[in-house]
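[job 4471] stage=fold_predict status=RUNNING
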Amino acid sequence: MTIRLDNPSRRGLMLGAAATAVTAGLPGAASAKAPLLRSQSPYFYRFTLGDAEATMVSDGTLPLGDPHANFLGLTPAEMDAQLTSNFLPLSNAVLEQNILILNTGSKLVLFDTGMGSLKLFGPTTGKLLTTMRQAGIDPKDIDAVVMSHAHVDHCGGCVGDDGTPHFPNAQYYISQADFDYWTDPAKVPASFSAFLDTARKNLLPIRDRLVFVKDGQEFLPGIQAIAAPGHSIGHTMFMITSGKDSLCYLGDLTHHPVLLMEKPLTEFAYDTDPKQSAQTRLKMLTMLAKNRIPVLAYHFAWPGIGHVAENGQGGFRYYPQAMKMDL
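[job 4471] inference complete, writing structure tokens
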């Protein structure tokens, strides 16, 4: 009997399945008894940016928890509709921690340092040093550590539990407003005590190597600070330029590719000033969309590189860029 492959019948499919089952029992046929590997590929991605080489590493995923408790201003129905239409779960917003290491040819620059040993959001964070080594980068070779702000998941990996800097040959860069706020027990609310402790643990031991960046300043060749306050008092984005290419490192301008994008005035529970943060987000996303500037989002799906565009309804859409595996 001939089975037409362009319009298989139910009987034909059943016969095919039966034949496969018989063949699987023959000597030398493949079996399904291979062990589960339960391992993943190395957690890094490398690409070119103008004349520079960029490497993405990770501090691991950060399970934020119930999005309804963390993203504010949407009704439960609105939030569920946004998440469902984008094939995202309703019960747990899992964020990435996409860390950029930029080799300019003269400097090796690390952007943000993850959570360190703090397990505030579970056991999946704290992978930065491991993923750096997977990428062939020695922490001792880092010349500059650039921090968008002093929250636990951005400055938490500067110093080890024994007080030893993880990047012993680096100069460190952050806004003075964020340093002054997050290391001062009189300013940080009691509900953010873990943030205070983490900032003091990681920033005070390197105080003599801290350089404070200012809005608009090109503090390293090709790296310009852009003040983007609200999420924290001194939160900063960075415009990176090399040759003819540019990339804007967003830090925490937006934590979520849907919930803080479709309606950018939605608020986030961890913002120091949620109203200011929302206005900053709207302003900066408008600028980035208008100028078609590629972005790197710290918390978006790995590796967090793409574009933002206006969605025609007063909000924005994120378009991830495909990874290019040939350099």
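[job 4471] summary: The helical segments are 10-24, 67-70, 76-85, 128-134, 152-155, 176-182, 193-203, 274-291.
[job 4471] exit 0
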